[in-house]
């Protein structure tokens, strides 16, 4: 096989110049591993001059930050459409992250801890500037020989080793971190200090790969100490990346699952295509989310994305992810193998991530916070259900093999035995149908058997903590967990009877229809059934009080139905004119606002 | 990406190969060297996983090697472990200039044993053997460890392109051997099954009993 042997060793010597954001532009015949795009479609310093009015507005906004009221959010967003002026970004980020308040409230002293870290470095025989091979070696010696360094207050040596390793691999083509020259040496050292101090600040998280990109980004814009507090705020605050870098990377996995669901909703064709080729969203979402999109090639886009993320938090991360999917959809659909799909997602091409293409797509994509919460609840519920089902199945098979009666029954066919994996509700309705059938054909023994089943199912249902169907006509027994069942809302619902979502009505009607159908058949004449009917009545009688099951999936679809989203464009305009506030649901409980007229 | 010189339709098999090892041992670099024939001095940290492929010639048949690059940090193991499934070959890598990465090999082997399919072919590779001046792990130690766990051992260097292709060629040959063996065994059992099936068919009552217990 012919082999072209390219050895790109001397990257630093091939740099032509640095672009406006500090990324190296190489000579034409030189190809770095992860090339950056230098053709900025929108860059604040060259193409766009902020008008004096805008600059004034920014100034006012940033100086009066503490006294701002609720309206500042819209103002900020309006201003941000034109980009954040370069010299305001540092202040804006600090204000958004609330790093100063974090610093004030924390007992952690930056200076004192820096001294402590330096002491530890000396003990280990390395320095913050010693990112070269011998430092790593000294570290491995230290790891081998003494473990007493792990005593309280010291940063885990493994974290230090990992940080040192990653210094050279963080923005390797950026002015601040490239090579071993003067500024890069200082840049890497400050990156090391921020990361190791964080590992000391929060030893349970320590250091995780991906953090270096975030800290590196912050250091490009602010002083080391500010960068540290901003970094801490970004990693620790619930609104931002809390839990992204923890020991099991649990939140990122959950978020990947949420992203998968969102994709299924918004781009059904694409998500099916991706799934067919064996590509899981977790594969490409991890680097996107964990590095906060810093691996996109166009830096002007990255900065704009960061501005948005810092304003709105985690929701924006999903928003950007979906916007990328939207822009890349046609390309991805045209690609038909995993091996081409995955690199395409990981190294998004310049055309996709250009400011002019991606940012409008991001602005057009709308995701509400509650959507993510409620999807998380749905995922959680599905997981639990799966676990429960597998447990039940195991239990059932055990039982089946142990009890001869059931085995005997299994020999007759499954007609009288309800399906195992259906909900209690479907079991019940199935039961009636099958009872009718057997009744009509005159199978009396089967009927009694299925009745016994029904009784069991009913009692099980009654005793189960998760009540799918809630009793009506007894407002006191209604669960407190659901705000939907509040009396005020019930009144509203009564008055707005016509506005009840069709899906709800349809659901209920179908269920009642099933029941009435079954009770209208000869079976009803059976005294036993009549007794059961009495039992069932209190859970199935229609009433004016609308009820939504506390199941997360039901709640989610309910909320989806009642929320104007881009998915339901028909709803958008009347709702926007009716109400200005966006719905704010706190998951998993339901908080419903007055229902909108859907016409 | 990969080597697209061969037309796709002439590919006889695709093997999934995983590269595992501590952070910074040169996993991404090895894949780049093998799949793109390139070497870069500066890489970025891999987060999550990446995948590249190359078609190689194996005893006259074209075999596509699909190589999965994984993040090395221990924390990412929860993410990457789910991709061990279906792996046919695993390249376990350490850095000969760094003893810690070598000491962690046993941990990696443990996780492979837990998560990977049982008949995966694993190769131990000591990378960066061009830096013999800073060597921290002797070749003998690597060999011994590999012997203990029944693995094959190589020392390689991506920078000087030593043994990189050989490692992949070797692992591909081994996977092929395993597959051939399995295919043979399957054929044998398949013929057995068809025989028993045929003999059972003749006796009506006993066939039923046999089927039920199945």
UniProtKB/TrEMBL annotation, chain A:
- Listed InterPro entries: Rab-GAP-TBC_dom, Rab-GAP_TBC_sf, Rab_GAP_TBC_domain
List the PROSITE patterns: TBC_RABGAP
Residue spans of biased composition, Basic and acidic residues class: 590-599
Limits of the Rab-GAP TBC domain: 83-313
Task: Spell out the residue ranges making up region: Disordered.
Answer: 386-423, 458-501, 562-599
Start-end of Polar residues biased regions: 572-585
Cite the Pfam families for this sequence: RabGAP-TBC
Show the GO MF annotations.
GTPase activator activity; small GTPase binding
User: Which residue windows does the record flag with biased composition (Basic residues)?
Assistant: 458-475
Protein name as annotated: Rab-GAP TBC domain-containing protein
Specify the species.
Owenia fusiformis
Automatic annotation (TrEMBL), chain B:
The entry's keywords: GTP-binding, Lipoprotein, Nucleotide-binding, Prenylation
GO MF term set: GTP binding; GTPase activity
PROSITE patterns with a match to the protein in the record: RAB (PS51419), RAS (PS51421), RHO (PS51420)
* Superkingdom, taxonomy of origin: Eukaryota
Read off the Gene3D superfamilies from this record: P-loop containing nucleotide triphosphate hydrolases
Record family assignment: Belongs to the small GTPase superfamily. Rab family.
Q: What does this protein do?
A: Protein transport. Probably involved in vesicular traffic from ER to Golgi.
Name of the protein: Ras-related protein Rab-1
According to its UniProt entry, this protein's organism is Owenia fusiformis
Q: What is the lineage of its organism?
A: Eukaryota, Metazoa, Spiralia, Lophotrochozoa, Annelida
């Amino acid at each position: 096989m012919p082999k072209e042997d390219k050895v790109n060793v001397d990257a630093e010597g091939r740099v032509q110049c640095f672009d406006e954001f500090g990324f190296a532009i190489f000579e034409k015949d030189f190809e770095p591993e992860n090339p950056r795009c230098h053709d900025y479609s929108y860059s604040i310093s060259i193409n766009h001059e902020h008008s004096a009015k805008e600059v004034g507005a920014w100034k006012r906004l940033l100086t009066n930050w503490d006294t701002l009221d609720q309206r500042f959010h819209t103002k900020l967003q309006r201003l941000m459409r034109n980009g954040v002026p370069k010299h305001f970004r540092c202040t804006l980020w600090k204000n958004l992250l609330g790093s100063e308040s974090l610093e004030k409230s924390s007992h952690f002293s930056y200076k004192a801890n820096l001294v402590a870290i330096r002491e530890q470095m000396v003990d280990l025989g390395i320095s913050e500037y010693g990112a070269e091979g011998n430092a790593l070696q000294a570290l491995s010696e230290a790891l081998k020989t003494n473990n007493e360094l792990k005593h309280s207050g010291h940063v885990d040596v493994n974290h230090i080793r990992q940080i040192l390793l990653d210094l050279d691999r963080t923005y390797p083509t950026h002015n601040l971190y490239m090579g071993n020259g003067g500024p890069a040496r200082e840049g890497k050292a400050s990156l090391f200090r921020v990361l190791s101090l964080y590992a000391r600040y929060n030893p349970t998280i320590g250091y995780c790969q991906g953090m270096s990109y975030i800290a590196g980004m912050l250091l490009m814009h602010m002083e080391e100490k500010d960068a540290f507090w901003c970094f801490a705020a970004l990693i620790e605050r619930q609104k931002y990346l809390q839990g992204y870098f923890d020991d099991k990377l649990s939140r990122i996995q959950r978020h990947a699952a949420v992203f998968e669901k969102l994709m299924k909703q918004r781009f059904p064709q694409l998500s099916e295509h991706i799934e067919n080729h064996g590509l899981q969203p977790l594969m490409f979402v991890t680097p996107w989310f964990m590095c906060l999109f810093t691996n996109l090639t166009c830096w002007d886009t990255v900065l704009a994305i960061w501005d948005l993320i810092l304003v709105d938090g985690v929701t924006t991360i999903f928003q950007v992810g979906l916007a990328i999917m939207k822009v890349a959809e046609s390309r991805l659909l045209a690609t038909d193998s995993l091996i081409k799909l995955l690199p395409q997602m990981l190294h998004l091409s310049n055309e996709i991530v250009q400011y002019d293409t991606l940012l409008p797509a991001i602005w057009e994509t709308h995701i509400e916070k509650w959507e993510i919460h409620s999807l998380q609840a749905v995922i959680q519920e599905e997981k639990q259900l799966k676990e429960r089902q597998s447990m039940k199945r195991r239990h059932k098979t055990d039982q089946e093999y142990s009890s001869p009666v059931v085995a005997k029954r299994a020999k007759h066919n499954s007609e009288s035995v309800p399906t195992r994996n259906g909900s209690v509700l479907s079991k019940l309705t199935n039961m009636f149908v099958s009872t009718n059938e057997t009744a009509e054909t005159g199978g009396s023994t089967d009927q009694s058997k299925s009745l016994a089943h029904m009784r069991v199912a009913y009692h099980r249902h009654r005793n189960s903590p998760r009540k799918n169907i809630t009793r009506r006509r007894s407002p006191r027994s209604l669960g407190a967990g659901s705000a939907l069942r509040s009396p005020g809302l019930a009144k509203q619902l009564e008055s707005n009877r016509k506005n009840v979502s069709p899906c709800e009505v349809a659901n209920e009607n179908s269920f009642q229809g099933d029941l009435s159908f079954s009770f209208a058949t000869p079976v009803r004449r059976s005294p036993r059934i009549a007794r059961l009917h009495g039992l069932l009545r209190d859970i199935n009688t229609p009433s004016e009080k609308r009820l939504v099951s506390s199941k997360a999936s039901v709640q989610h679809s309910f909320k989806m139905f009642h929320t104007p989203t881009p998915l339901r464009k028909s709803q958008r305009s009347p709702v926007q004119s009716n109400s200005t506030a966006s719905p704010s649901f706190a998951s998993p409980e339901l908080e419903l606002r007055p229902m909108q007229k859907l016409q | 990406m990969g080597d697209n010189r061969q037309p796709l339709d002439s590919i006889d098999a695709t093997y999934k190969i995983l590269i595992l090892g501590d952070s910074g041992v040169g996993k991404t670099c090895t894949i780049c060297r093998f799949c793109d024939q390139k070497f870069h001095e500066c890489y970025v940290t891999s987060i999550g996983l990446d995948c590249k492929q190359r078609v190689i010639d194996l005893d006259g048949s074209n075999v596509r090697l699909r190589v999965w690059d994984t993040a090395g940090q221990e924390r990412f193991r929860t993410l990457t472990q789910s991709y061990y499934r279906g792996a046919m070959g695993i390249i376990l890598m350490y850095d000969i200039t760094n003893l810690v990465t070598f000491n962690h090999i046993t941990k990696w082997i443990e996780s492979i044993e837990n998560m990977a399919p049982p008949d995966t072919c694993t190769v131990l590779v000591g990378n960066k053997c061009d830096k013999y001046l800073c060597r921290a792990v002797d070749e003998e130690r690597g060999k011994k460890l590999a012997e203990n766990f029944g693995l094959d051992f190589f020392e390689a260097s991506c920078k000087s392109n030593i043994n990189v292709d050989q490692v992949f060629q070797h692992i591909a040959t081994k996977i092929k051997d395993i597959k051939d063996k399995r295919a043979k065994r399957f054929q044998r059992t398949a013929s057995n099954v068809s025989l028993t099936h045929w003999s059972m068919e003749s006796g009506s009552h006993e066939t039923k009993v046999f089927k039920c217990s199945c």
